[in-house]
Amino acid sequence: MLHSDLYAENVLFDLDQTPIFIDPHAKVGPPAFDWAFWCVYYTPNEGFADRVALCREQVPDLVDEVLAWSATLAVDGCLYYLDTDDPTAMAMLDDLGDPLLSSIVGN
Questions:
Q1: Residue 65 burial by Cβ neighbours in a 10 Å radius (0-12, 13-18, 19+)
Q2: Which of 11, 41, 74, 101 has the most CB atoms less than 10 A away?
Q3: pLDDT tens-digit profile of 45-57?
């Protein structure tokens, strides 16, 4: 359990339906999740591709996983922002439309 907040939004499933426990405020977990969270949320309206490029320079072995987590976070964020009528939803949609994520989200 990741600091006592195990709830539905913190459980994802891989292609084999194995649960993966995440934490939006990670203390223990995959480093790629932290990179992805930074890429998607640092400044939601700009800079996604630049942050992914920096990630590629610093941790090249994690980039594919970072992009997968980025897509997941952007979808989750977009759904939340749409539900709360927050205009930040458009930033999440922009990230999902970025060519870096096209192979993941099927653009």
A1: middle
A2: 74
A3: 899 999 999 999 9
